[in-house]
From TrEMBL, chain A:
GO terms for molecular function: amine transmembrane transporter activity; carnitine transmembrane transporter activity. This is Glycine betaine/proline transport system permease protein. Its main location: membrane. PROSITE patterns: ABC_TM1. Pfam families: BPD_transp_1. GO terms for cellular component: ATP-binding cassette (ABC) transporter complex. It comes from Litoreibacter meonggei. Belongs to the binding-protein-dependent transport system permease family.
Automatic annotation (TrEMBL), chain B:
Its EC number is 7.6.2.9. NCBIfam families: proV. It is an enzyme of class 7 (translocase). This is Quaternary amine transport ATP-binding protein. It catalyses: a quaternary ammonium(out) + ATP + H2O = a quaternary ammonium(in) + ADP + phosphate + H(+). Residues 7-266 form the ABC transporter domain. It comes from the Bacteria. Pfam families: ABC_tran. GO terms for cellular component: plasma membrane. Belongs to the ABC transporter superfamily. One of its GO terms (molecular function) is ATP hydrolysis activity.
Length: 669, 343
């Protein structure tokens, strides 16, 4: 017994080789086995033993919306109240940016005031750019938003901007308050940590379903989803930022006799401001990403344009809107980063100056806003960018893609076929063939082996859940797509990371490439992929690889770079060639970091996979997507949880691996 | 006549770790090092008794990790001591309510920190005025007061700078200005100059002594630098592993180190800067022919040239002007070459 245990837990090859062999055999022969034994349960989880979770959740949601009441008010009143709270500022922002203010409804509406003119919006953003950094940023802002006007994306872009303008303050302030609460009340932190973990792994689509159910189709539902999606990172960043305030600064506050509230708001939060601004930048980028996705439940704007173009396979239109999203994402990212790192280098001007002297930009913006408003009576083009002067790149893009498809069709087809035949299909066959019962056993064993009995039980139970809700096959498709994508992403990303770590030039180029990839909303990746490879698993894989590659590069670079320089010197002195140095010293030492990067890649891949349901995969993502179109809450939540569970299992097992690797090498964890 | 005791610290303990206060209680408030070790606890401050008198510079000296910061934080109740009593102007700080404590800190205490701890989003002026702002003092009044202290610490003209635009020494001047803005009675300084370059450090020490000559605060000054301690201190408490091993004037410390540990510190100090005429003079000798007078409290360093240049010894006068002994060049040489002067 003891011997068995030793072998099981210690000899790596004796564990992994048999496990893989058995799995492979069972996967290949599960179907004949079922035929031979007449035991259908081998390949399909028995319907009688299914957890009827979907129906229960749907019934619960029904009850929530129709009957639930908190005494004084019903649940429905609550959702209506939240709606109105969000709707009012949203309507205002939309009116100010694009629709104009009017009184009355429908055809009786009387215009009261027009929206801000496009000139005024551009000047405002440029002014913010200059205020936050310098003329270069101002020019970038003007260029980006000028592009939106000139290329006919203005209206959609303003609708998207209005959503972002509402979602960001609510998400940032809400996240800040929750973070402050968690910082102050340890019990609350204990509660919110696992919630944040789950929020990070549940795919975005699956919260769209219940939100759609509760708030109905429309911009409010989209905003609620956006806020829920964008808030968790802010909570995390807030906790980290507040903890990171030096204890001496905290002590200063106490010693000068601050009350608890003064200590928090006058000392700790302002001292943490630079880190908090990093969180705000994240909220902005996530909001933009989600506003695009949420166009499926009524957000409108640029996301909606992309979505309809994808549905119509309108190549030019899709790329136009996609480029507009990219332009806007880059502009907002740079602007918010500039605010985060803004250094007030100039000394504060003395207070004797007049208003215009002290606030040159605020005054300029005001003058331009009023000036363009007045001028627009003479020159309407100042209010609304004249249609006749817009340029459309739609046909250009269609032509480009058309040209590529005509001339390179065979090449693309060949690449696609090779990947499908030699990688995608065999892997798919392997995973889909695994009988569910063996799947549960294998996951328990693996969990046990890498992280002890607790992890074994956790991964066993989570796997069993997936089987028990009847999603085994779809889950295996997800695992296969995710696995292949992560493999390809690592195969490209890790060498890039290693290159970046060893060469400064490469580092700059790769760094900015990765930065840009990370700025782009996930939706955008679908566009070129579908244009070039049409729908299917291969397209999904390419999109996922592009989206999920960044952490593989980053962690690999960081891991290689942070190898103890003395070790490298020791290697050099003992006469290693650069190649030996890499393989014998740097890579083994960077292993824990590589594993963490792999972990992040998997999480990103899973979240992107759900979005690729739009390009026709048949996995859990599709299940969520179907639930969304049918507004079937139970189905959406169950499928969403299944994805989250896969993510959690992968995360825990890889983290355990990384820890083991670290302890083995004697690094502090 | 001795000055009144401002801060009286009796048998103060601070133990870190799980169940610290239970262990402390169960061992009658006096757990041994072994007990602490067995329970995996850290005795950061152990059974410390100190009396700090009005107007003195009381220096707490010890190596890093010896518990100085923890002790000074107990004295200001930034950390809650595990046991003991701390009487500030006769009142036990450990039993005062939060509201009272806030009041005491606002009006009577000031503290300067090793890493300056300036608020990055406030200018020099706003940082200095911050303790007053917290008290709700109107802007004009608090800024006027802040300008006074800024001038006092020699930063006039930098009022509108941000901390990141200042050098380390300047930043610590702001830290000092801030802690003085409320005119505290009791002034804590936790290694205020340790983060500065040696040259700047000396300059700041001079500055500090100049300020104290103007202000006559009661000061608790932490340092790990023995030279700094003897330069500034009226009295020094030497700490080791959470315990105070000796409290004495710099001179007594050099002459009579209580343990080898203390002696180790004193070994390399330049004695002529520490020892006074009184410590090395020869008593009596009224009949000897002398070349002049020196005061009993003068440092050897200050009179060395004079003594050396003269064939004859000098007469030593006490504070009242009575002749109490003589001192000659031999004594100076003894001090300089470090011949043992055990009394
Ligand atoms: N918050 C804490 N938790 C646990 N141990 C601490 C804490 N603060 C200080 N210590 C320990 O108490 C001892 C004294 O620390 P400190 O007072 O900072 O020393 P010093 O200021 O003399 O360098 C050290 O061993 C330190 O590790
Ligand atoms: Mg210290």
């Amino acid at each position: 017994m003891n011997l068995l245990r030793r072998i099981f837990l210690q000899k790596a090859a004796l564990f992994w080789v048999p496990i893989f062999a058995v799995t492979w055999v069972l996967s290949a022969y599960s179907f004949p086995l079922y035929k031979a034994l007449g035991a259908r349960w081998i390949i399909k989880y028995p319907a009688g033993a299914r957890l009827q979770l979907e129906a229960k959740i749907s019934a619960f949601m029904q009850w929530l919306v129709e009957d639930a009441s908190f005494g004084l008010f019903s649940f429905r009143d609550l959702t209506r109240f939240i709606s109105s709270l969000i709707e009012a500022p949203y309507t205002f922002a939309r009116n100010a940016l694009i629709d104009g203010f009017s009184v009355g409804l429908g055809s009786d509406a009387v215009d009261v005031a027009p929206s801000l003119s496009w000139v005024a919006v551009i000047v405002t953003l440029a002014a913010m750019g200059h205020y936050a950094r310098d003329w270069k940023l101002a020019a970038l802002m003007a260029g980006c938003f000028g592009y939106l006007a000139v290329f006919g994306q203005w209206d959609s872009a303003m609708v998207t901007l209005a959503s972002v303008l509402i979602a960001v303050p609510i998400g940032a302030i809400g996240g800040l308050l929750l973070g402050v609460l968690a910082y102050r009340v340890p019990a609350f932190e204990m509660f919110i940590r696992p919630v944040l973990d789950l929020m990070q792994t549940v795919p975005v689509f699956s919260y769209l379903v219940p939100i759609l159910f509760l708030f109905g189709f429309g911009p409010v539902a989209a905003l609620v989803a956006t806020i829920i999606y964008a808030m968790p990172p802010m909570v995390r960043v807030t906790i980290v930022a507040l903890r990171g305030v030096p204890s001496e600064v905290h002590d200063v506050g106490v010693m000068v006799g601050c009350t608890k509230r003064q200590l928090m708001w006058k000392v700790i939060i302002p001292s943490a401001a630079p880190t908090l601004m990093v969180g705000v930048n994240q909220v902005i980028m996530l909001s933009l990403n989600m506003v695009i996705i949420a166009s499926m439940i009524g957000a409108g704007g640029l996301g909606y344009d992309v979505l309809t173009a994808l549905r119509r396979l309108d190549i030019g239109g899709g790329i136009e809107a996609g480029v507009a999203i990219v332009v806007m994402a880059i502009a907002l990212d740079r602007l918010s980063q500039a605010f985060a790192t803004r250094v007030a280098d100039e000394l504060p001007s003395n207070t004797t100056q007049n208003l215009a002297g002290r606030h040159p930009w605020a005054v300029t913006v005001l003058v331009v806003a009023i000036g363009t408003f007045l001028l627009s009576y003479i020159l309407p083009a100042i209010q609304d960018y004249p249609e006749s002067m817009t340029l459309s790149t739609g046909t250009f893009w269609s032509d480009v893609i058309g040209y590529i498809n005509v001339n390179f069709f065979d090449t693309f087809e060949a690449v696609k076929t090779v990947f499908l035949t030699y990688l995608l299909l065999p892997v798919k066959r392997f995973f889909v063939g695994i009988p569910w019962a063996w799947g549960i056993i294998v996951m328990t064993l693996i969990g046990w082996r890498v992280g002890g009995i607790g992890l074994g039980l956790l991964s066993g139970v989570l796997t069993a859940f997936i089987a028990a809700v009847g999603l085994w096959n779809k889950a295996m498709v997800t695992v296969y797509l995710c696995g292949v994508s992560v493999l390809v992403a690592s195969a490209i990303g890790i060498p890039m990371g290693i290159l970046a770590a060893q060469n400064d030039r490469a580092n700059r180029i790769i760094g900015s490439f990765i930065d840009t990839l990370q700025t782009l909303p996930s939706f955008v990746y679908l566009i070129p992929v579908v244009m070039l490879f049409r729908v299917g698993d291969f397209s999904a894989m390419v999109a996922v690889v592009l989206y999920a590659m960044a952490p593989a590069v980053r962690y690999a670079a960081h891991g290689v770079r942070s190898v103890d320089p003395q070790l490298v010197e020791a290697g050099l002195v003992s006469g290693c060639t650069p190649r030996q140095l890499l393989w014998r010293i740097k890579l083994p030492m960077a292993l824990p970091e590589l594993l963490l990067g792999l972990n992040q890649t998997i999480l990103l891949a899973l979240s992107m996979l759900v979005i690729t349901a739009l390009v026709g995969t048949r996995d859990l993502g599709q299940e969520v997507y179907i639930a969304l179109t049918k507004a079937n809450t139970g189905q959406g939540i169950v499928a969403g949880l299944s994805v989250a569970f896969i993510a959690i299992i992968a995360d825990r097992i890889l983290s355990a691996f990384a820890t083991r690797a670290r302890t083995k090498m004697g690094m502090a964890s | 006549m001795q000055k009144p005791i401002i801060l009286d610290c009796k048998n103060v303990w601070k133990i870190y770790g799980a169940q610290a206060s239970r262990i402390h209680r169960e061992h009658d408030g006096n757990p041994s090092s072994e007990t602490l070790k067995d329970h995996g606890l850290i005795g950061a401050v152990r059974a410390v008794n100190l009396q700090i008198r009005q107007g003195e510079i009381f220096v707490i000296m010890g190596l890093s990790g010896s518990g100085k910061s923890t002790l000074v934080r107990c004295l200001s109740r930034l950390v809650e001591p595990t046991g003991g009593e701390i009487l500030f102007e006769g009142k036990d700080l450990l039993t005062t309510s939060d509201a009272e404590l806030i009041e005491i800190r606002r009006k009577k205490m000031g503290m300067v920190f090793q890493q300056f701890a300036l608020l990055p989003h406030l200018t020099v002026l706003e940082n200095t005025a911050f303790p007053l702002e917290v008290q709700g003092i109107p802007q004009a009044d608090r800024e006027a007061r802040a300008r006074e202290v800024i001038e006092l610490v020699g930063l006039k003209g930098r009022e509108s700078y941000y901390p990141r635009q200042l050098s380390g020494g300047q930043q610590q001047r702001v830290g000092i200005a801030r802690s003085l803005a409320v005119e505290p009675d009791l002034w804590f300084l936790d290694e205020p100059f340790s983060a500065l370059d040696p040259l700047i450090r000396r300059e700041m020490q001079d500055e500090f002594l100049r300020l104290q000559n103007l202000l006559h605060k009661t000061i608790v000054f932490i340092t790990h630098d023995f030279d700094e301690a003897i330069r500034l201190a009226d009295r020094i408490a030497v700490m080791k592993d959470g315990k105070v091993v000796q409290v004495a004037t710099p001179e007594e410390l050099v002459l009579n180190p209580a343990t080898e540990y203390v002696e180790e510190f004193t070994r390399h100090v330049s004695r002529s800067k520490v020892l006074t005429v009184g410590a090395v003079m020869t008593r009596g000798g009224d009949d000897i022919k002398t070349a002049g007078d020196v005061g009993i409290g003068q440092r050897i360093e200050a009179v060395a040239d004079m003594l050396e240049a003269s064939e004859l010894p000098f007469k030593v006068l006490d504070d009242e002007g009575n002749a109490v002994g003589t001192i000659g060049r031999q004594a100076v040489i003894d001090v300089l070459v470090g011949r043992v002067l055990k009394k």
